[in-house]
Automatic annotation (TrEMBL):
CDD domains: ACD_sHsps-like (cd06464). InterPro entries: A-crystallin/Hsp20_dom (IPR002068), HSP20-like_chaperone (IPR008978), HSP21-like (IPR044587). Residues 25-136 form the SHSP domain. One of its GO terms (biological process) is response to heat. SUPFAM superfamilies: HSP20-like chaperones (SSF49764). It holds the Pfam family HSP20. Keywords: Stress response. PANTHER family: 26.5 KDA HEAT SHOCK PROTEIN, MITOCHONDRIAL (PTHR46733). It comes from Thermus parvatiensis. This is Heat shock protein 20.
Amino acid sequence: MLEKLWPFGRNRVRKAFEEALEKAFKDVEVLEPLSELSEHEDHYLLRVEVPGLGPENLEVRLEGDQLVIEGEKREEKRTKHLSEIVYGRVYRAYPLPKDAKKEGITARLAKGVLEVKIPREKHPPEPPVRIPVEEA
């Protein structure tokens, strides 16, 4: 009977229904923001693009030797005629460089770009160590 009403067959209807259910109930996608890390004499500067996020829905924290940036860009409920903006959870963990100080890290958000300044510990440069080469 269903085949007469729906020319694509029962299996295709079931598959389309299952795909719609999966899409409706799937976990929130995690968005990984674009970033750059630059090295300066006394600090590192991590710049992360987080358009649409404000300080109230953005968190910067240390977890061991990683700097974690997390937030959520929530979709506003309204009638849309076009939607290309991506919404969801924003998460990224960055391993700290070996000479980074965990104390004194600062974060600033301006024009959709989060800037995290990470102080560097000053170590005297190690002189090269000559390794003798033996003849075999």
